[in-house]
Amino acid sequence: MSAESGYSLRSYLLIGGLIMAVLLSTWMITGLGPDKGAIIALALIGGASCIYTLVNFEYGFYAGMVLGHLIFLIDRMFGDVMPTALMVDLQINATFVGLLIHKVAGRETFFKKSDHTITYAYILYTCYLILEAFNPQMQSYEAWFFVLRKFIQFVMIYVIGLNMFTSIKKINFFMKFWGACTLVSAGYGCYQQWFGLFEFEMNWIWAAPGRAGLYMLDNGDFRKFSILSGPAAYGILMGACALLYAVLGFKEKSGPKRVVWFLITLLAVLGMAYAGTRTAYLIFVAGAVLYILMTITNRSTMIVAGLFFMGFVVIMWGPIYGNTTVNRIRSAFDTEDASLNVRDVNREMIQPYIHEHPMGGGLATSGNQGLQYSPGHRLAGFPPDSGFVKTAVETGWIGLFLQCLLYCLILLSGVHAYYRTKDKQLKIYCLAALVTVFGFVISQYGQVSIGQIPDCFLFYSMLAMIVRISKMPEGEKKEPLNEPLTES
After folding, report:
1. Is 54 part of any domain?
2. pLDDT value at position 17?
3. DSSP structure class, residue 359
4. Distance separating alpha carbons of residues 236 and 241, to the nearest angstrom
């Protein structure tokens, strides 16, 4: 059987299976009720998807990406009774197993596409997290295993990306696919802002104590969260996506494609603004500054920089009064903001603990996770309010040093790959990936942003993209769009 006929058979099987799943799901929901029927239907669909993933790991990756965007919407619609997070975990694990099967079938060594500084840095950091099991301050091995398992899953996404982005054509497909997901999530957030929230969304807001107060703005309206877990996750993701597609739009030569990229950028910027997440605004500004610095020798960049600066001045100091969204953006750059001062006080208060505990207090010992797994721990209930602070208090200054070293190596690798790459299309993708990753790293100062769903699919895919692009051969040689990237 030829490869083409094999793919056709896979397509027919997938389409047929989806049709059967829809019919079976409809029957179950009708016969068993919306809750039980939906749970069983999702289990059947998820099981079928995982099985197909074993023979096509690239399908599994994109299926997990879509599921990561939808799980929170499904939870709200059915009252948080669906095991949707478990479905994402199973999909990622099945995709990784599918990758292993693919490598065994092709007689390919596991580390063939993984030989890079970023990979070694992640292996080192993973080993340190394993050593945290011997931290004398830790009180719960369940908490340690929970964090380690999630981190290994993120590394799995990175490794899967390394083996997926084997050609410019596949990188281009990822950009289009993620763009479609961004259109849906950004567009839905704009819909919430323009037309209001659905009843099931309002019920979800009022269901948890304190959630309404956290989401409510000064004018009585609510921060928007679209189909994601909350306003913070939504705003951060939209800020990163706005950077990604703004870079693609500025560098795109094709008129129709440029319009699409800028449309995605516009909706993402609006979604970022409506989310009311201050960290997201910092992401966009920091990423824009990096883009300007990386391409400052281009005439078009100077024009973009001028327009960006004027827009920033108008938003910050223009005669715009009474607009809640604009006021929220301005507060992100106000050094006297009350919430920022509270965070600074917390960080200063916890510094002696960090100095005294080189390995920290143990994984998942701070914040709500600490109250859940280690209620008697000194850090239980302490609000880290920052990815870097959370790392420092839970893994100590050693863990913080390793994490900062990891991010520095990632950014240095991205810069090196950008200036080394001669292919124009790859150069654009590398710049877009680098700016997006930089935005995520900056966001760690204000939020625990890296590692959320579905943000993790974007962040670790961008890392894999940087690695794959960096492995292109030096020189002026250019490869066709449908040819595989050459190993160095």
Report:
1. yes
2. 60
3. T
4. 9
Parent domain of 73:
1-110
What are the backbone dihedrals phi and psi of residue 232, each rounded to the nearest 5 degrees, phi first?
Answer: -65, -50
User: In the structure encoding, which two tokens stand for residue 100, read together?
Assistant: 């292993």
Q: What confidence score (pLDDT) does residue 327 get? A: 80
Residue 100 inside a domain? The answer is yes
> Would you state the structure tokens that stand for residue 409, as one six-digit string?
């190596």
Is 165:464 a contact under the CB 8 Å cutoff? yes
Q: How many distinct structural domains can be found in the chain?
A: 1
pLDDT of residue 1: 43
Model pLDDT, residue 480 = 41
Residue ranges in the chain modelled with pLDDT below 70: 1-44, 46, 80-83, 335-340, 473-488
Q: Is residue 95 included in any domain, yes or no?
A: yes
Q: Are 48 and 21 in contact (CB under 8 A)?
A: yes
Amino acid 57 reads F
Q: Cα–Cα distance between 65 and 75 in angstroms, integer? A: 17
- In sequence order, what DSSP letters do the residues of 361-388 get, joined into one string? S-TT-SHHHHHHH-TTSTTBT----SHH
The set of residues, in sequence order, having a beta carbon less than 8 Å from that of 27 and lying 6+ positions away, is none
Does residue 212 lie in a domain region? no
* Cβ neighbours around 163 below 10 Å, total: 20
